[in-house]
Write a structure and sequence with these properties.
Layout: H1 10-19, E1 25-26, H2 27-34, H3 39-48, E2 52-58, E3 61-67
Antiparallel strand pairs: 1-3, 2-3
Length: 68
């Protein structure tokens, strides 16, 4: 996979801004608040840009949290 750059991608920047507070966000939260789809791909791209993002799965829902 070729990841977009966090410096130039508005899509990645929106998700990064949401995750900045260190709180957990579900896939649905990220989709609605950041107007992105394929959340797992966005998270993979953010990780490829050097960010540490935890993922938790509970009752069919994925939750993501930026680790500072």
């Amino acid at each position: 996979m070729r990841a977009a750059s966090l410096k130039t991608s508005k899509r990645l920047q929106r998700v990064h801004a949401l995750l900045q507070d260190g709180a957990e966000y579900s896939t649905r939260d990220i989709t609605t608040k950041c107007d992105v789809y394929a959340v797992s791909a966005v998270i993979a791209e953010l990780r490829a840009n050097g960010l540490h993002i935890d993922c938790r799965h509970e009752k069919g829902v994925y939750y993501y949290r930026l680790v500072k």
